Structures are given as C-alpha cells and as structure tokens.
User: Which sequence fits this backbone?
C-alpha cells in the first residue's frame, strides 16, 4: 500500500445544488462518498463494476457510474442524485409515472433508471419511441420488472412533459 | 458501527493447514479477525430447513474449520472501522492451504475414482429419491412411439440486484442479539441463529427491512449471518457486512443445474402413456437450507398438466466442489417443465401433429379435479380453455401461416408453446412435515383496528418487491370497509410480527398469508359491528359497513364511524357492550387444506439470425389462470419479471466452471442478465378459476412467469431451426450453440445432417 493512497484530500462539490466540502481518502468511491459521507443513500450499488447502472448519477449533467469514479475526481463538479428529483415533497413527473405504471418492484435499480431516464427526457426532441427508450435504458439492469412497465413510465412521462411544454414537441 | 469483510477460499477443494492473522491485526482500525479455529469444538453446523428421508449430512459452518469445498467458502471474517481498511487487512491474512483434487460436475462426481467431498461416504451421492406409478415397463413395451433425450440445464442464480447484507448487534450484558438481514425467512433465521449460537429464541430479534429482490436466493440461512453476529460479540460493537457483487456470485446459492435423461411413450393417436426421468442435481459442496428440495420437485412434477398414468422418476443429489445449490423462482419446476414440454414436442414432431393439438389430447380434463398425479393433488383447472385462449391471444393460426411465408423467404422463424402448472399456497403443514420440512405450512395474520379507525396488519412475510403488502392491505381494507390508504402493513420483524410457518416463498404470500389476514380482518369486523350495534342501539344484522362508516340499513343518518368504534375500544371502554373486553385486534391462522395450482400457456415467436446465431422475439403471448386476482397490475408485473428471468435462463445466463471447479464468472460481463432490449413484451391475458381451497380464491403467481417460458423459447428456437433438424436439449441457447445447430460452427454431434422438410 502506498502512502499516497491514504493521504486525505479535500473535495468541494455541489450535489443537487447544495455545496459540500469533505476530506476523503483518494480511493474513496464517489458512490461511497455520496452514501456514507453525505448520507445520500438513494444512490445504490448493484455491481461496483459499472454494468448494472443502479449507481447512475448525473455528473455535470451527463450520466455517470458513481461506482467507477473516485470522489476526488469530482472536485469542483456539479452532481445530481435521485434525491434531487423530487421538489418540496412532490415527486417529479418521471417518478410519478414510475409509480402509476408499476415501474418498480423492489426498487433497488430504480434510482439508476430514474437518473438515466431524466437525462433522456431532458435531451429528447419530442416523445421518444419505444425502441429509442429501450436503447437508452439498456445500460441499466432490472431483475424484477422485465422492463416493460419502466419503458411505459418513461414514455408516459415524456408525453406529459411534451404536452406541458409544447415547444419541446418535434 | 464496524464493518466486516470475508476472506473466502480461492480453492475449490483444500485443507486449511493454518491461518496467521497477526499482520492483519497490526493495521490501525482493525478490531478482530475470526476464523474457524475460533469456533468452539461443539459449535453446530448450519441448520437445514428441509430434512428429506435418507439424505446424508453435509456439515458446514459459519467459518470453514479445516477444509473448504468450494471457491468462495467463508474462511475468515475481518472486522475494521471501514470496509476499505478491512479489505486492506484481508490481504495480510496468511492462509496455508493444501489443495485437494476437485470435482466440477455431477457426472464427474459419479465417475469411478472421483475424489470424495465427504470422506466417510462411499460416493458423492447426498440423497436419492425414487417414485413411480402405474406399470411403466408395460407402457413402454406397448407404446407406438418412445422418445428419449438427455437434457442439460445450466447452473444459474437468482441474482437479486441488491446483494445480501447483515448488521448484527449483540448486547452481551443483556444477552440480546438483534440482526438486520436481507432475508425471506426472518423467523426461520431467528430459530437457526438460536440453535447455532445457543441464545434462546426470544433473545434474538431478526428484522428484515424492505429487501431488494430475493427470488429464492434469500430463502436461505447463510454462514455470514452467524459470522457477523459472532463478530459483534467479539468486538462488543454493531458490525455490518454488505455483500459485493463479486462475492455474491460465489457466496449466494446457485440454482437450476441438472442433467436429466428422460423418456416419453405415446400411442400413435398422440395419447401419452408413460414418462420416465433420471435426474442428476448438482448440489455443489453441501446441502444448503432447503436441501435438495428443488431437485425433488423436478422429479415429482414430471407429469406436468397431463393425464399420464405411468411414470417412474429417480432424482439423485450429487455433491461437487461448487457453490451450494438452492432456491430460485420456481425451484425445480422450470426444469421439469422444460423436460416434459420438450418431450411432448418431440412426440408431436414424430407423429407430425401440431404441438398445440398434441397437448390438447393429453390435458387433465376439468371434471377430473381434484386430480392426483404423480405426487401432488391439483385443486382445479380449465386447461383446455386456457390453451384455446392462448392460441387465440397469440394468433397462433395466423403465425403458422406467416411462418410458412417467411420460411419461403429463407427466414428462420419459429413458434413454440409450453403449458405449465405452478405449485402455490404452500402448505399444508401436515404434507410439509411428512415430506421432511422442519417448518409449518401455515401463516398467521394479525390485524388491529387503531383508535383513529385505521388498521394495521402485521405479517411475518417479507416484502422484496413482489407487492403482496398491497394485496394484504386490499384484503384488510375490503373486510373493514375502509380505504386502502388507511391500512399500514408491518412486515418482517420477529419481535413484532406473527410467525410465518414457512417464510416468504413458494408463491404463498397472497394465498396463505392473504387468507390468514382476511380471516383476522373478518374477526375484527365482527367485533366492530358488535360495538357499533351497541352504540347505535341496533341489531348487528341491520348494520352496513361502508367507507369507514357503520350505519343502520335504511336510515343512513344513524351511523358511527370506524374512529368512533376505535376510540370506544381503546379509550372509552365504558361505551362497549356489557362484558366485552377492550381492544380491537385479532390473530388468526390459516393452514391450507392442500396446495393450489395455477397454470398457463406461453406462446413464443422467435426469429434466429443465421449469421450470428442470435435469437430475437417477434411476438409473445402469455395466458394464465391464477384464481382470484387481487391486483391486476401486480399480477402482470410478476408475470413480466418471471418471464424475463425465464428468457434469461433460455438464452443468456450460465455460471460456468472449468474442469478444476474454478469459476469462469465473476462479473456482469460474463453472467449476462437480459436488458430492456432483449425481453419481449408479452400480451398477457387470463382466466379466473378461484381456488376452492383458499378463502378468497387466490392461488399465487410469484413463480409462474419463470416456469413455462424457458420451454416455450426453446421450442420456438427448435421450430425456427426446423430446416436443419436439431433437437434443443440444452440451455442457454447461446449464439455458439445456435450456430452449431445450424451447422456453421461445427455441427452438433447428434444432429442429423438431413435437412427436414421445411414446412
């Protein structure tokens, strides 16, 4: 073990708009940092090798696996986690759609799906088709639902968002 | 709180010569390293929930004592301030090993001179089960047609996306242990902890929070649950262990793996007259919590939904140097379904009959229920109606027509169907106990109407995403005439919740658990009405209970609310009828008279890419009958999820070992779970034939989707490859295997080179 691995470093970043500053080991995973140091336990760890997508967060607006990042790599970054989706006790349109469509069973993978899907909805031009949604979600694993209700939830959320802001249509 | 990590065996089979943890203990922040040498000599092995007649003992311990029998077996637990430090320390624990020869498959374990896993045994056979009915030899002799195949089903695992986790807090001064664990069996876990640790059951509290998927893998009592408790006792601190994915592949039970040699006999008119099966279950290194239950279930399900008067089965449970085998959605039923349905398809092929028609000629007719087959008694069913509906929903005739056209264009399109039956509502206790289960088949429901008129349901069942808490809340709300939102369901805490006989498995939550809760809610309802009658000065028979109000029939203005009744019961007992005790709660038991048997039909339409060997879906229909449906959304969700796992079994998933029993897996790059792109969206429809055995008529649906789908997909692929003539007998159908069957990647030995008539 090299010494440097254990020399703590200062990390300053913003999570869901709030500024945080902590001193951590360089090897501390971003996922562990979020869950243990910031107590934001909505981000789940399903594989720790970047395949299952449960730990997906948005790093400077782009989806990223928090299990494949060190906290120190994110110094100065803007991070969004699943805790940032609901506002003032109100679920987001996407979260509400997951609930209505039975888009989750055990819910373990759900934070990752929500973060991936929120990125998709943010950048979609119009309402994405079923196959487009399935391709976008193919980097997230779910073992409970068989995916169909997740796809339906995302599609329904996209429709609702499009009709709420008609300029996004087409 | 301290954190534990496990040092696990890197060898499939080895003797532990010595362990030196002194360097690890030097690391700042390391609190303890426990090994098998720290267990007292009389420390018991891990208990089993199933003790079948004649099964051999395969003792294994919370931490291996002097010998390991699979890669991943826990050898030491390292406790430190953080998992990072504990993992550092693990690198410094020095183990001296003496590797032993290993066996990597059931067949290798049976070979002459194979290394023995348990030296006091004559062979590697942990148990043999045999049963038969009718006169099989005569049936085989008299048959117009006999088909025989050898089937190979890969080792898989349930793979819940959330791994296991244990947090133990052992208060040595109060002599109390609290264990939070990711489990489907809190009460069984509590009892087992008591037996192993020597602490009385009431001193142990097992709490199961919401679980991130179980699918059977958490219906097991694991060494880590004991070792983490021991670590808490040793350090005097709460200790947490969270399984990571890499160890989950090795340390959580595997499932499914079997080799089955089976035969089916039929008359020329398609009537099946006999079935035989010789099953080898690869149990891995030891019989785990449920013993060889899944292999036994495969054996006794070998007549499926058909009137087959003659049957003979043998199942052998074989130990090998692999992770112990255990439960996974369906237990042994997907394997039995695969074998029987594949044989039925071979009979249809040989007789040139449509597979749907052949099935129709053999289904158990409605007037034969309750029907006693090879082992179980089936409660009810309208099998032919279900088949008709499935063919209609699938557009079966239309697909056959399209298939002809597409084949002429050179496309490899296949249609496959399977008929399944699912064992649900497990109990009853007397059958489980007679079969060797060290647990009951009942469930206990506890319903309490609170002072505010809302209800609380307490159940020992565990919520892991299947949604039964919603179903129990519905049943309770319906009985008590209150809103769904006014029912709170409390689950999985042994100090608060009633005992559940068997645990959360075998698709029993809605049926057995639901019936118990419904019964308790009805008892509460009766008392509510008695109190209300007294308050309203009316007769109970004249009261109506609706929308949280009890009113006198015909004069709606005369009413009291549930909250009025709740307050009277607890806060103003003076308002109760003379002689009535305060309180408004009931605990009721339901032990089903028999198991319930939902059933259904899968119809898969696939296309095989002849260049890549990849299988894709063109259509999928799923028609089933699970009795009364409490919540269609949840039932359909269970079908979707089970079916996805069945498709995974059919096409993608396998835990492969090399010949030395070293695992060839360890990440999601080599164990392929299907994604949103691979799973077909089924068109689901249903019949409703309420179970005559269950108050409310619910059967169960938890495992159904996983049982029939592998056989249907296999049949569809075989049908698509009809121009090349292979028989699909192995899963998963990887592209390599498909290409081998097409003949572009080394022809499968048994495949006939002759190209069959393409139509």
Assistant:
């Amino acid at each position: 073990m090299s010494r440097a691995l254990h020399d703590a470093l200062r990390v300053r970043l913003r999570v869901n708009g709030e500024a945080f500053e902590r001193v951590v080991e360089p090897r501390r995973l971003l996922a562990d940092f979020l869950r243990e140091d910031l107590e934001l336990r909505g981000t789940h760890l399903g594989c720790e090798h970047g395949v299952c997508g449960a730990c997906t967060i948005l790093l400077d607006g782009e989806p990223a696996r928090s299990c494949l990042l060190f906290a120190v790599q994110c110094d100065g970054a803007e991070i969004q986690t699943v805790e940032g989706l609901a506002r003032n006790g109100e679920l987001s349109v996407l979260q509400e759609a997951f609930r209505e469509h039975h888009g989750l069973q055990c819910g373990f993978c759900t934070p990752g799906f929500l973060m991936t899907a929120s990125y998709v909805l943010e950048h979609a031009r119009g309402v994405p088709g079923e196959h487009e949604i399935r391709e976008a979600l193919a980097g997230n694993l779910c073992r409970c639902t068989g995916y169909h209700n997740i796809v339906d939830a995302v599609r329904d959320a996209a429709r609702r968002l499009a009709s709420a802001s008609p300029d996004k249509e087409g | 709180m301290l954190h534990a990590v496990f040092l696990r065996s890197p060898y499939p089979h080895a003797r532990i010569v010595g362990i030196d943890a002194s360097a690890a203990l030097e690391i700042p922040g390391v609190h303890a390293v426990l090994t098998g040498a720290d267990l007292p000599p009389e420390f018991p092995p891990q208990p089993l929930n199933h003790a079948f007649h004649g099964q051999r003992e395969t003792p294994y311990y919370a931490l291996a004592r002097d010998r390991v029998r699979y890669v991943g077996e826990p050898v030491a637990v390292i406790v430190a301030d953080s998992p990072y430090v504990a993992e550092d320390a693990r690198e410094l624990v020095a183990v001296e090993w003496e590797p032993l020869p290993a066996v990597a498959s059931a067949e290798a374990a049976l070979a002459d001179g194979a290394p023995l896993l348990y030296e006091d045994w004559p062979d590697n056979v942990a148990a043999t089960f045999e049963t038969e009915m009718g006169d099989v030899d005569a049936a085989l002799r008299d048959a117009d047609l006999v088909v025989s195949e050898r089937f190979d089903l890969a080792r898989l695992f349930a793979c819940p996306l959330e791994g296991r986790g244990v947090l133990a807090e052992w208060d040595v001064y109060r002599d109390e242990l609290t264990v939070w664990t990711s489990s489907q069996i809190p009460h069984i876990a509590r009892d087992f902890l008591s037996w192993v640790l020597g602490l009385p059951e009431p001193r142990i509290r097992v709490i199961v929070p919401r679980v991130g998927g179980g699918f059977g893998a958490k219906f097991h009592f694991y060494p880590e649950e004991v070792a983490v408790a021991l670590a808490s006792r040793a350090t005097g601190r709460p200790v947490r262990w969270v399984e990571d994915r890499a160890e989950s592949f090795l340390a959580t039970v595997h499932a499914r793996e079997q080799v089955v040699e089976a035969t089916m006999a039929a008359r020329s008119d398609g009537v099946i007259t006999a079935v035989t099966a010789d099953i080898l279950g690869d149990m891995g290194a030891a019989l785990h919590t449920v013993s060889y239950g899944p292999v036994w279930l495969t054996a006794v399900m070998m007549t499926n939904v058909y009137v087959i008067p003659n049957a003979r089965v043998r199942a052998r449970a074989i130990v090998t140097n692999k992770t112990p085998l255990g439960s996974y959605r369906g237990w042994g039923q997907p394997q039995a379904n695969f074998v029987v349905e594949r044989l039925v398809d071979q009979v249809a092929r040989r007789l040139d009959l449509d597979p749907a028609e052949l099935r129709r000629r053999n289904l158990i007719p409605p007037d034969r229920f309750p029907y006693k087959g090879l082992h179980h008694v089936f409660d009810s069913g309208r099998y032919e109606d279900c088949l008709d509906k499935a063919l209609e929903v699938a557009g079966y005739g239309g697909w056959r027509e399209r298939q002809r056209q597409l084949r002429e264009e050179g496309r490899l399109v296949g249609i496959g169907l399977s008929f399944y039956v699912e064992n649900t509502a497990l109990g009853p206790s007397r059958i489980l106990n007679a079969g060797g289960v060290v647990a009951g088949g009942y469930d206990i429901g506890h319903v309490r109407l609170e002072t505010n008129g809302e209800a609380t349901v307490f159940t020992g069942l565990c919520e892991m995403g299947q949604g039964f808490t919603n179903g129990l809340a519905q049943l309770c709300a319906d009985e008590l005439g209150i809103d769904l939102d006014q029912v709170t369901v409390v689950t999985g805490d042994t100090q608060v919740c009633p005992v559940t006989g068997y645990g959360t498995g075998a698709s029993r939550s809605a049926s057995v658990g639901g019936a118990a809760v419904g019964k308790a809610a009805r008892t509460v309802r009766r008392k509510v009405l008695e109190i209300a009658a007294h308050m309203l000065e009316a007769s109970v028979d004249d009261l109506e209970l609706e929308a949280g109000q009890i009113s006198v029939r015909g004069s709606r203005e005369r009413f009291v609310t549930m909250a009025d009744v709740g307050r009277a019961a607890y806060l103003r007992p003076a308002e109760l009828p003379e002689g009535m005790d305060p309180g408004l709660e009931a605990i009721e038991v339901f032990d089903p008279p028999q198991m319930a048997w939902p059933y259904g039909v899968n119809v898969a339409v696939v296309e095989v890419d002849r260049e890549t060997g990849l299988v894709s879906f063109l259509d999928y229909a799923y028609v089933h009958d699970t009795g009364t449906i409490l919540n269609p959304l949840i039932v359909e969700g269970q079908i979707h999820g089970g079916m996805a796992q069945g498709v995974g079994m059919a096409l993608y998933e396998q835990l492969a070992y090399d010949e030395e029993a070293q695992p060839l897996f360890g990440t999601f790059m080599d164990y392929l779970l299907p994604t949103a792109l691979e799973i077909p969206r089924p068109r689901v429809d249903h019949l409703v034939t309420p179970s005559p055995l269950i108050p409310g008529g619910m059967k169960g649906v938890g495992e159904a989707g996983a049982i029939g789908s592998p056989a249907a997909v296999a049949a569809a692929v075989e049908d698509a490859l009809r121009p090349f003539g292979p028989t699909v007998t192995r899963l998963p159908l990887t592209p390599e295997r498909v290409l081998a069957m097409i003949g572009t990647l080394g022809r499968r030995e048994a495949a006939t080179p002759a190209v069959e008539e393409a139509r």
